[in-house]
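Final report, closing paragraph on structural work. Over the funding period we assembled a curated collection of sequence-structure pairs, and we close with a single example.
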Amino acid sequence: MQKIKPIFLVLFCSLFFLSCTETFEIKNTMIFGYLSWKNKNWDKAVKKFLDAHEKAAQIKSKDSADYANFALASTYLMQDEIDAANDRLKKISDPEDKKLQAAILYQSGIIAYRKKHYQQAVSFFKQCLELEPFASDSKINYEISKRAAEQNETITEKETTRSLSIETKINAEENIILTIIREKEEEEWKKKNQQEYKPHANDY
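Its predicted structure, as stored:
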């Protein structure tokens, strides 16, 4: 699986084209967040991106909030906080920017792969490639996820077969035990009947 890329760096270009002058402070906060991200200062990066998201919410700038959420998701992924990253991606609804759409699908694929949901990862990377057909990382991850999904399916089939074999063996053993018990009971019953109906000397 390819490493997580700082995809949101590319997305900042789109952020800077936002016409609202109120987003200037958000842009600066995002840049400082990215610099912290690049220096692997994850806690500081998270703080900056949270600040940016809060400011975006105050001015009701959905685009700015989307970029901040994506940046947070990418930072959480670097810290291996899978659920937190996934929650942030889910907060982004119907973005107009195709680069952001592709980036969300890419990171969602990474999350699915780490959760061992390989078939789901295949689907995410496939959708990502539909938006960006020449994205080499997405192609590589698509193939890796596809191979993992196929291997996982084979393992599942083997485990199912093994489980069925064990169950069959257990059932066979149970039948043998029940047969032995039944035979013992019949033998005891016959002995008991023979003793009850055995003629005594006083009867003659």
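Helices lie at 8-15, 24-38, 42-58, 62-78, 82-90, 98-114, 118-131, 136-197. The chain has two domains: 8-152, 153-198. We thank the funder for supporting this effort.
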